[in-house]
Write a structure and sequence with these properties.
There is one protein chain. The protein is of the alpha/beta class and 339 residues long. Helix 2 runs parallel beside helix 6 and helix 3 packs across helix 4. The two termini are 45 Å apart. The protein has an eight-stranded mixed beta sheet, sandwiched between helices. Helix content is 34%, strand content 18%. It is globular and about 70 Å long. It has two domains: 238 residues, no CATH class; 46 residues, no CATH class.
C-alpha cells in the first residue's frame, strides 16, 4: 500500500523542557497527530537528524507492512540521547506521567470554564461541565502516550488473554554503536518492555484433568512465567535479518512480529485510522470538532477502549432501569463491570 501523505515533523518540550520530535504521516504540517505512538531513543549522537531517524523507522518494513495488514499507522516520538537504557526507561515513565497530568489539567480547565460560564448565565453548571467534556472527547494538549499495552487485572481473562504479554510500556532504543540508519538496518534496535503487571492469579495455570465424567475431579496446576520485569532484546527492522556479518550470527527477532504481538491487545476499534470529513474539506488544516482529535477509541489505564466502555456503561444502566440484560458476548467482554 503506497503512502498517500507526507511525513511531517513537529517539535515539543518534554517533562524536563528538552525538545523532542514527533514524526507522522499527514496531509499538512498542522494536521492532527494520531494517538498510537512508538517512542524512539538513542544512546549517542547519530549522523542524521531526529526527523530523518523517525521517518526511516516509519518507512521500515515493520510499519509499512503493519499499515497494509492491520491499518495501524503510528507516529514516532524521537528523544534526545540518553546515557543508558535504564535512563531511557526512567525518562519514558516520567514523560508518560507528565503528559497524563497535562491532559487531566486541560480537561479540568475546560470543565471549570464551562461550569463558570453556565453559572453566570443561570444554567446548570454541572450539566454544562459534563457536556463540555463530552464535546471535548479525546482531544489533548500534548501528543498522546498509550497508558498500557495490557489489560488490568480487573479485566484479565485466562483464556482470552492467554497469549498476551503483561508489559504496560515499551520503547525502542538505537544501539550505541549505530550512527546511521544503514547500521540500524544491519544491527537492529533494542526493544525494551517494562512496567510488568502480574497479579497472583496470573502466576498459575489450572486445567481440569479429568479424562471422563466417571473419573474423580482433579485439577492440573502449573506456574506461569511471564518473563523478566524488564525485557531487553535485539530486534530487526528488516525481515530475515541477522546480527553481525559472520556466518555464525544469530537471527534477530522481527520487530514486525513483536509489534503485532504488542498491538494484539487492542480491540477492533482501538487506535485505528480515523476519517474526518472536516479534515478532508480543510485539506488537513486545523478546524473545529476534528474527529481525529475527538475520537476516544483508545485505551484507558485498564486497557479498555474509552468510547466503548462509556457506551457499555450507558447500556448497562439502561438494562438496570428496564430489567433487561445485554447480549452474552458483551457481558463476557466486560464481566468485570458487573462484579
Amino acid at each position: 500500500m503506497a503512502r498517500t501523505k507526507g511525513a511531517r515533523t513537529r517539535q515539543f518540550k518534554d517533562h524536563a523542557s528538552n525538545p523532542y520530535t514527533v514524526v507522522h504521516y499527514a496531509s499538512t504540517q498542522d494536521s492532527p497527530i494520531c494517538k498510537l505512538s512508538v517512542h524512539l531513543y538513542t544512546l549517542s549522537n547519530l549522523n542524521l537528524d531526529p526527523g530523518s531517524l523517525g521517518r526511516s523507522l516509519l518507512d521500515s518494513e515493520t510499519f509499512v507492512f503493519s499499515l497494509d495488514a492491520m491499518d495501524w499507522s503510528p507516529r514516532v516520538d524521537v528523544y534526545a540521547p540518553q546515557p543508558s537504557i535504564e535512563a531511557c526507561i526512567e525518562h519514558h515513565r516520567r514523560e508518560k506521567e507528565y503528559r497524563a497530568r497535562a491532559r487531566d489539567e486541560f480537561r479540568r480547565k475546560v470543565a471549570t470554564d464551562a461550569a463558570s460560564t453556565a453559572g453566570e448565565a443561570g444554567d446548570g453548571d454541572g450539566d454544562a461541565a459534563q457536556q463540555a467534556l463530552l464535546n471535548l472527547g479525546g482531544k489533548e494538549p500534548l501528543p498522546h502516550i498509550v497508558p498500557t499495552l495490557c489489560v488490568s487485572a480487573a479485566f484479565w481473562d485466562r483464556h482470552r488473554c492467554m497469549f498476551q504479554e503483561r508489559y504496560r510500556s515499551f520503547i525502542l532504543v538505537v544501539p550505541e554503536e549505530c550512527l546511521t540508519w544503514e547500521e540500524v538496518e544491519e544491527k537492529g534496535l533494542w526493544l525494551v518492555k517494562f512496567d510488568q503487571d502480574v497479579s497472583p492469579a496470573m502466576e498459575v495455570d489450572a486445567a481440569d484433568g479429568a479424562a471422563s465424567k466417571d473419573e474423580a475431579d482433579w485439577v492440573h496446576v502449573k506456574s506461569r512465567n511471564w518473563g523478566p520485569p524488564v525485557s531487553i532484546e535485539r530486534v530487526s527492522v528488516v525481515e530475515d535479518s541477522e546480527i553481525g556479518e559472520d556466518d555464525e550470527a544469530e537471527p534477530m527477532a522481527s520487530l514486525l512480529d513483536k509489534w503485532t504481538g504488542l498491538t494484539s491487545v487492542f480491540s477492533d476499534c482501538t487506535c485505528r485510522t480515523v476519517h474526518c470529513e472536516g479534515c478532508y474539506k480543510s485539506n488537513g488544516r486545523p478546524h473545529e470538532d476534528c474527529e481525529v482529535e475527538r475520537s476516544e477509541h483508545y485505551f484507558d489505564s485498564d486497557g479498555q477502549c474509552i468510547a466503548c466502555r462509556r457506551e457499555w456503561d450507558i447500556r448497562r444502566l439502561a438494562a438496570l432501569d428496564n430489567h433487561w440484560y445485554p447480549e452474552p458476548c458483551l457481558e463476557l467482554e466486560y464481566e468485570g463491570l458487573f462484579t
